[in-house]
Amino acid sequence: MKRQTHRKHTGQRLLEKLQAYLLNHAHGLFSSLGRLSRAPVTSGMTILVLAVAIALAGCFYIVVANIQQLTGNLQASNQMSLFLKEHINEAAGQKLADELAHHPRIENIKFIGKQQAMEEFKANSGFGEALNALESNPLPNVIQVLPKNVLDNREALDALMGEFKQMPQVDFVQVDMQWVERLQAIMRIAGRGVTLVGILLGFAVTFITGNTIRLELHNRQDEVFISKLVGATHAFIQRPFLYTGFWLGFIAGFSAWLIITIMLLIIETPVEKLSGLYNSSFQLLYLSFSEFILLLMMASGLAVLGSWAVLHYQLRQLKPQ
Amino acid sequence: MLRFEHVCKRYPDAGDALIDVSFRLARGEMAFLTGRSGAGKSTLLKLIAMMEQCTRGNVMLDGKDITRIGERKIPYLRRNLGLIFQDYKLLNDRTVFDNVALPLIVSGYSHQDIARRVRAALDKVSLLGKEKKYPLSLSGGEQQRVGIARAIVNKPKMILADEPTGNLDPDLSAEVMHMFEQFMQVGVTVLIATHDVELIHRLGHRVLTLDNGRMLAN
Lengths: 321, 218
What we know:
The complex is a heterodimer. By secondary structure, chain A is of the alpha+beta class. Chain A is built from ten helices and four strands. Helices cover 73% and strands 7% of the residues of chain A. In chain A, helix 7 packs parallel to helix 10 and helix 9 packs antiparallel against helix 10. By secondary structure, chain B is an alpha/beta fold. Chain B has two domains: 1-80 and 156-218, Rossmann fold; 90-155, no CATH class. In chain B, helix 3 (96-106) packs parallel to helix 5. Classes of the chains: A alpha+beta, B alpha/beta. At the A-B interface, helix 1 and helix 8 of A face helix 2 and helix 3 of B. Chain A: It holds the Pfam family FtsX_ECD. Chain A: It is a multi-pass membrane protein. Chain A: InterPro entries: ABC3_permease_C, FtsX, FtsX_ECD, FtsX_proteobact-type.
């Protein structure tokens, strides 16, 4: 009997300890927020600096993401156009195309005669009337070639191109979508740039928060000393400061999201106008919900990291006198 | 309760603060620590409060060797001590209640326990009813009593007081000393650094005297 009551007692004590611990965390969470709101100018400026740094990285990211979505739709293909020499007439061109259709490395072939090309150009370019004024058709006969499965084999593609160039009827050869490939290479570099700028600005967020917490620690030196003298552990003392760092990062992350969203809203209309001019159904990409959550987590995580590093070092230095 | 064995403390820039100091304090004993300014009183208290470490010798507190105690263990050992300062060292942006509650919050006491113990401590120093006041709205004597309440709220085994009556008039000083005697009677060891010679003689407790870092009378 006695043993049982004793056990219940320790269980209860443990529960009370846990309750006190959680209460302490809750107190740290809200009192640090209260403290920030009591010095609105100072905290506001810090948060603004952090928000601008985060928004800078975020804007760069979303711009690159938007361009990537644009170029991503463009299928890089190795379709080539063989432009035939001027003296080759349509019948000769068609004959050459028929011959090439049996080529083992060619998947598909299409002959576009100069007359057909002229009609298509008139229909699509909007220069219809002006083109009628031309005495003769300046367009060449073209054979469009889609090579077989050599999309990712640069050398095979080059060899095929070389072969076509050697032909006496061919004026020059062009890989139609090569520019897409080049643009995508540029976008890969831009993507890497986003990562680098992100890391750099991440450092900025860490150091700015760390420095803010360092100043805060100095302002509240007495409190730290007295807490130490009544037996507070470092974990206890640094808790409210860590929460302050968390709030700085969290609010800055949210503000950065607001900044990015507002900027996108501002450019949305002109972008739509531009995309309309190209007959494109381009939709401006905003930060998704998961990206928004990630942004908040990274901002508050880095801020806590910066605060923790400073506290870890400074609390050992601060000795009560 | 407390034992110093051939303790030396040398500061790199200020030289020897304590030279070969040895003494013991029994559980429930009350003693005064006196000496001129710079005789080493504060250094001796700092060694007990683990704010400094001695250069040579040993310091034992409650059966534990605290001479070269690890940084991580210090907070837990400090919870056995009640520290009282000449300048009170209260947090002026917190109420009397919050000031006194600090050692309990730090030690992770439950809400109900904190409220009960803080009231009991404030009752002992006759400040019940002033929980919601802020330290700066109190008189010097009242502020010192808040400091004492904070020192005893955790039921420490030992109380260290550094010039606790330094800023108080004789009547208030006598009152504070009377409180210390009450704590002693319930088994708390009390060590008071002071140079109020008249007070010491009137109360007639044990006196430890420091002179230029050496312990004279014991």
